[in-house]
Fold each of these.
Amino acid sequence: MKKIITLLFSSLALFSAKAQVDKGNMLIKNGTVITITKGNLEQTDVLIKDGKIAQIAKNIQAPAGVRVIDATGHYVMPGIIDAHSHIALDGINEGTNPITPEVNESDVINPFQIGIYRALGGGITTVHAMHGSANAIGGQCETIKLRYGTFDPEVLKMEGAPRTIKFALGENPTRSHGEASGIVPRTRMGVEFVIRQAFSEAKEYAEAWNKYNKNKLVKGFRGAPPAYSYRHEVLSDILNDKIIVHCHSYRADEIYMMLKVCKDFGIKRIVFQHVNEGFKVAPELAAQGAMASVFSDWWAYKFEVYYSTAYNAAILTRNGVVTSINSDDAEMMRHLYHEAGKTQKYGALTDDEALALITINPAKQLGIDSRVGSLEVGKEGDVVIFKNHPLSIYGVPMYTIVDGIVRFDREKDPDDMRLMVDPKQTIESATLRDKHNDQDHCMEGAEFILDSELFNANKK
Amino acid sequence: MITKNRMLPGVSGLIILMLVSCSLLAQEEKELKPVTRTYAITNVNVVQAPGRKMDMATVLIKDGLIVSVGKGISIPGDAIVIKADSMFMYAGFIDGLSRVGVARPKEEPSRDRVKDPGNPTPERAGITPQNDVRYSLNPSDKSVEDLRNIGFTVAQVAPYGNLLPGQSSIILLSGKSIDQMVLVSNASLYSELSGANNVYPNTTMAVMAKWRELYRQASQAKSYQSLYASNRNGLERPASDRVLEAFYPVIDQKMPVVFKSEKMLESHRILSLKNDLGFNLTLGEVKEGWPLISKIKASGAKVFLALDLPEEVKKEEKKDDKKTDKKADSTKTKEVAKPKTAADLEKEALEKRKAEAIANYTSQASAFAKAGVPFGFSTLTAKPKDIPANLRRMISAGLSEDAALAALTTTPAQLLGLSDRLGTVDAGKMANLVISDKSYFNEKSKVRYVFVDGTMYKMEVKEEKKSDPNAKVEIEGSWSTVTQTPQGSNDGKATFKKEGSSYKGTVSGGRLPSPVDMTSVTLEGNKLSYSYSLSFGGNSIKVDVEVTVEGDTFKGSASIGARGSFSIEGTKNPKN
């Protein structure tokens, strides 16, 4: 059905804007290579050609003109992937409606945010830039590679990465809509209802189009087409397995509810985000192939996250759930390797299991594991070089490399890495608190729903 | 998301209201027909088009048209002769996008809560593409005169609003009625990537989603309408839809979409909408276009660059340095200059980057010219009084005078499809002309005459003595002020008190609940300027007043935040 619509409008697409992405060549010599998927290789070289890993072996000869980085005594691991973040975005929540799948973070990528560079300093190379959690079905998200330095938002996008979308259960959507506007959903039941209703409408929409398109082939057919709805187009895409669902959730009951909704509507790919009570339904998640992206030990910031444990990631992993650890926060993103390390204290995961939580597993959750997440020939040249083991408290990222290009070098880390400078900004003495970058952005943009009464009161 | 920026218009609207205490009843004057519509401008240096000059020529105008340009032209008996000896004449300037002459809506955009914020009416969401800016034109709006006074004669004007407020017109900066002003109606569909307050679409991403949906719905509705028109028998009647129908000429490529596109990322986003949907695009008020010149070029979008520039960094610090140096010399201590602290160095580095950033804005026009991308200028956010200086800044940043002139005349004429009528000083074209006493781009040049559609506007030559740096005036005491705003005149009071070598002051009146202290008062010769801030719900709006004092009166302008500038007059109150 989508095809027909695409056909309808394809004549209008005059040219496509393919972004020019820089790719580099590089030889990383003599490090301890942590492949994640194929064990550790001592004193081994990694050759990157045209942005891709061309060879992993001992004593590779540097091709002429290729930059060589000596990693002797250092650890070479795949770039860290954060499956839940809100950096590099101008706008997080379209909090006006509980169902807004048609909005797309891909439209509001901001390549100038300094948080991108800071994340590189923590070894991050790929980020899932997500819509917030104000709506039951929020907006589509964008998987970006941290090619900091570009002025073109298209360049940040990981070309060809699968489409993803944000769902949210529990307190956030009920507060944003039920409490603030007095509309459904006001309860967890309501959240389930609006999701089921949206999917049911999308099914009807798709059927109406199918019927119309079939009728159109009949000679002499005369009739009106169903009205085009961007919202229902995207919902149909979810039902047709074209979009991976990433569902903000905390409580076991709502997670289990969502598993049933997926079963009823034939949704195969779902990743639960936060999923603090995931440990209670780990076997159920595993059985349905659902994945989980969790915090290492962040909880009790609202009522629905009181029942939590730092063993969550380990329990999920041991039950066969593909699990990742995410930041949801520009500051925490800079030390996701510490967060992964906590699973060794709480749950005794192995080094590879712990590091998989921030590399290959989030790659699987974003549908990009054939391209990134481990060091293997043919994969993209996204690499972090650590001084000391990344799971050690002394681990420090020295270089962060994206597509074979050094995007962060601890030795060459200038004071002012801003790309754009506001010409009207007044320069004042420094402040320590960076309000924009040290908060959880999950509800950003939805504040007005809660604050507008106050605003009106002020106006009076 | 509510940003400060979005709140400002609402707040400054309140200020205007507070300033207005009564409305003026203009006295009706009886209009007389002009004696003649024939003018001969003699002995003038005519820059007919960029790079095409004719010195000491005569230009003959009749009935709104240029009749002839040349030497030894015989002057008809009914002509008013303007001896423009050694003056410079250009084609009237064209403004690619502004709101000159457009009455500001009386009501601020609603921020009321609606019952279901996800499904507002199109009007509440800012979606009224069927609206026509002609219905909001005000021929006597002061902005028309302000822009005309610096040489502009034609402007494309857009309605106020956020997402799709309506269709633009190309207007003459002249005329007593709306219809006299309009040159081309329904010139383009105007849009901004800004969302509605508290309702869908609120964020930029939702605005873009809504834009795509509307365009596709309109494409669908349009093809069904033509199917229906070809044979109505047995077909369900297509519903009328004012919003979607407004897109039809855009889909037919008969009408372009003009977007306000100040920010670099806005430009990227607008270009991606164009790529998705394929409409003819004009980018207006571009301020940060230099990094994406090649992308703009490839897209085929038309461009109007903003005539607004960020203020230059004032080099106050150097003065301070000198002062301290002198002091150090006089006290003859060995410590000539204090060693710079880390904070000083950091501040210097930040200042340097800021200066570099400003240079990018200033050199944007020259970068577009070098890349061979044709562009005009727009004045959506520029203050008319800053425009000549901003043009000179662009020229000193590498734009040639010819290129600047082209961007004011021939190129916008071409981009707006008006080349057959406007843009050059040639026989047969509309008599839209600017005459300045020196080359227009000379710092000391003053515009002396502007012709719009054959109507002459003579500029008052300000008496030199008016701004006399050596004049001695006494401002101490209380002054009654009258500020003219679009809503009427407003009475106030300003009080000055001398303290040492400087002044302090307070402002009261209008609907100000209590007197407000001035934040600065400077008096240089007879030039007086003072500023004060008003605060509303945590937002502060700066008011800058600049006047020239003569005896017990002053005259000048008051600019209120981004609301523009209004004329202000003051009279000194007798001492009690």
Amino acid sequence: MSGRLILGIESSCDDTAAALVTESGEVLASVIAAQEEVHNAFGGVYPEFASRAHVVSVIPTIEKVMADAGATPADLAAIGVTRGPGLIGSLLVGLNTAAGLGVGWNVPVIGVNHLRGHLRSADLEQARVKYPAIILLVSGGHSILARMTGPGEIAMLGTTRDDSVGEAFDKVGRMLGLPFPAGPAMDRLAAQGQPLFKFPRPMINEGLEFSFSGLKSSVARHMEKHPDARLEDVAASFVAACLDVLEAKCRLALTEHPSTALVVVGGVSASPPLRARMAAMCEGLGVELCLPPLRWSTDNAAMIALAAWDYLRAGLYPPAVPQVRLPITQY
Amino acid sequence: MSLTLALETSSGRFAVAVGRDDAVLYNSLADCEKGPERDLAWAVRRALDQAGAAPTDLSRLVVDIGPGGLGSVRGGVTFANALAFALSLPIAAFNYFEIVAHEAGPLDRPLLVALPAAGGDGYAGLIRAGQVVGMRFGPLGEIMRQAAGEAPALAVAGRLRGRLGEFLPDVERTDTGIEAPDPASLLALVRLHPDRVGAPGQPVEPLNETSPVFHGGVFHD
């Protein structure tokens, strides 16, 4: 490899992102064009509009990241681009952009698993993860527990059987009249209430799998029965139920698979109450807690670029074609 | 001497051609070697290799911006924008109806071009004397009848040309056989319309049902 940088491109859902990252995880520049205004009215991501917005924003985003870093094509060892999992129309914009740049700049293009990007996000700017580690990936699209024995060595422990925890946050947030994405507003609302309502903790004592659909439905039924309930208390009760489940699953994973560290990544890992709960649990268990800085918790291209370095070192070049579903164990 | 790369995107498969001035140096439709499906990077590298050229030899791109296969148009246009950005190349964009109008050549009757879209909707374009005079998106029957107007006879083209009898039973229809564009037509169009070539690196947008070209304007005086 000749260049010292990988250009990461991320367009799996509703953020168009580009970043330039060194092999050690130094981020020279990162740009994210968010689409919240496009999707706010729908209370969730509208896939067709997401794809169209990517078409408009992807080249300006890449142009800006190259300019911000003062980089030229000659600085690039490769282009790493999210190949899945994600929305098909969104993925194909990033992938075809990377393909066009790859031909024009004569640089190899590597299709990267978005989930592996999240796993590597905790090592951006500073190597934080001590292996072996239990990984909790919690976002709008995923709730995953895995164990890593090295940067690319992953064993799946459990995932959700229905909704992800972030999806539950967004759907309950819509019931409470919160803007999309609902996570930050939900946390603020919950902080003003009390967990007075005993919502279910789905599958809390049933292994390492998750389920959040029943919890969401329970909140909906409660609001139908009790239209005068304080929204702050509903939010606090919902968040408490989610945190109880997440803590119980992480505790069980660390017990069954003794590890040096717990790594919490994905958009929901930006939640202050989740961070506080995990910190207290890890302190009690004598396990190191590794969290990415807040800016790398949500979807970004720096994590894709850092993961692409793993692929490049291993000589892995998966086909750069969109994959709506892609297990975390695959590259 | 300008070297032009043409990308056809609307048919759902990608077709690529390379031309220098008036000569077509390569056309993927005449190439027996087929690469991975929908892999434009492979197709473009193959095209340039067969034409004896490198990406850095290109002077300009010409791209089909649809409408047509949603994923292929969007993917192809995105690829063209990225390649143009990488090499600071200008792009000329032509829509599907313009390409079909060129391929049909002079006709003694109006040409109705019909394409499907999602959910029972479609696209219609009407061409008179080689010029696209109107384009519409909407419910198939409605836009086909709007486009046909009072015409007693039409030439027809596009993926839905075989179904037009359902909507226009009393119109005499002549099938042109035109469905998937030839990328060599894009090379010819950009030679005929050099004013359509944009600024270096300037991206173009694929057409969709919200594009202004499908709203306003009239099919018939």
